[in-house]
Design goal:
This protein has about 170 residues and is of the alpha/beta class. The chain has 5 helices and 11 strands, in the order ββββαβββαβββααβα. Helix 1 links the parallel strand 4 and strand 5. Helix 1 runs parallel beside helix 2.
Length: about 170
């Protein structure tokens, strides 16, 4: 989208935002990120974006940054590309979730031209399931205490572990 700023009779155009539409594609060479890319494509469809199979405009995903932080990632938004470089596939997941948050915050699938470098502040982020059963949850259907949509919401918010209760003597032998 082009923003038009009218000031004192003159028109100045700025192209600060990059609009991602169906003319874009997603390129990656690491099969470990396929499931994350598929989820991102499903998210984009909410904005009417159905990614092309190949295009000059691309979201390029690379798992190639050496880092001790497995969630570290860099995102660079340019006119015809969004480059995601991450330390691991988990970093790619965090980058894609961040792009989703950015899109939801403005209500369109547009991104400001800029670079982001993001790392983990706290490595362990546990929560007790909002709808978790009390008692031995391992004996029950896990969809009751941990429905897929709730786990995805937790992951999007940075949660990387769920605390559960269990009966100790059922977990380890005497």
């Amino acid at each position: 989208a082009t923003k038009v700023i009218i000031a004192m009779g003159s028109v100045t155009e700025t192209t600060k935002e990059v609009v991602v539409d169906s003319s874009w594609c997603i390129k990656y060479d690491n099969e470990d990120v396929k499931i994350f890319v598929d989820d991102f494509k499903a998210f984009a469809e909410k904005f009417g974006v159905k990614f092309a199979d190949d295009s000059d405009k691309a979201i390029e995903i690379n798992v190639n940054i050496p880092s001790s932080d497995e969630e570290y990632h860099e995102i660079t938004v340019a006119e015809n590309s969004i480059k995601i470089n991450a330390a691991t596939s988990v970093g790619v997941l965090r980058a894609l979730y961040y792009l989703e948050d950015l899109a939801e915050s403005v209500g369109t699938f547009t991104f400001d031209k800029k670079s982001y470098k993001r790392k983990t502040k706290m490595k362990t982020r546990f929560i007790y399931s909002f709808c978790g059963l009390y008692g031995d949850v391992l004996d029950k259907d896990n969809k009751i205490s941990f429905p897929d949509n709730l786990l995805k919401e937790y992951a999007m918010r940075g949660i990387n572990g769920v605390w559960i209760q269990a009966v100790l003597y059922k977990l380890v032998p005497f």
